[in-house]
Specification:
Blueprint (H helix, E strand, L loop, with lengths): L2 H7 L2 H26 L5 H21 L5 H28 L13 H12 L1 H4 L11 E2 L2 E2 H25 L2
Antiparallel strand pairs: 1-2
Length: about 170
């Protein structure tokens, strides 16, 4: 069975539910992996966590039904595109390894302020303690930022396909 025929058999609601719960699962895996390996998430890591949560919420809104589906898909797709930007930037920082480009130098930007605010309220999930250029975890030659980039790109592709199929029927 090919991927396109499998995707054709899955309803839009089911696809949105899988995407939403998958995004929440990625956050859970990130938290557990961080705790188990004593990793120090940076502000960009935490911001990507927030974007995964936004994808999950958007996908669940889209799964709720027809009137909300376009809005939920838009939220999830915009969060996934933002994730590509954040993970791509973090991957570039890790490749460049220039301390002058590091997060936290200079006045905090809006993303850093948001992460700091979230970290004060829910430290177990959002406390940033690491450096953005640090590669503390590497699997198959890719850092966590690079794997996150792959995941966000996958979300963009699947969300775009679901949106095209779902909204094309309107």
């Amino acid at each position: 069975m090919s991927l396109s025929s499998l995707c054709g058999r899955i309803s839009d609601r089911t696809a949105c539910l899988v995407l939403g719960f998958g995004a929440f699962a990625l956050v859970g895996v990130g938290v557990v992996l961080g705790e188990a390996l004593r990793l120090n998430p940076c502000p960009l890591c935490i911001f990507q966590r927030v974007l995964y949560l936004a994808i999950g919420c958007g996908a669940l809104i889209a799964a709720a039904g027809r009137p909300l589906r376009p809005w939920g898909l838009l939220i999830a797709l915009m969060a996934a595109l933002g994730g590509i930007a954040a993970a791509g930037y973090q991957g570039w920082l890790q490749w460049m390894a220039d301390p002058a480009l590091e997060c936290g130098f200079g006045p905090p930007n809006l993303m850093e302020q948001t992460v700091e605010w979230l970290g004060e309220r829910w430290p177990r999930l959002f406390l940033a303690t690491g450096f953005c250029s640090s590669k503390e975890w590497v699997f198959l030659g890719l850092s966590m930022a690079h794997w996150s980039l792959v995941a966000f790109a996958g979300y963009v592709g699947v969300l775009a396909a679901v949106a095209r199929r779902s909204l094309g029927r309107s």
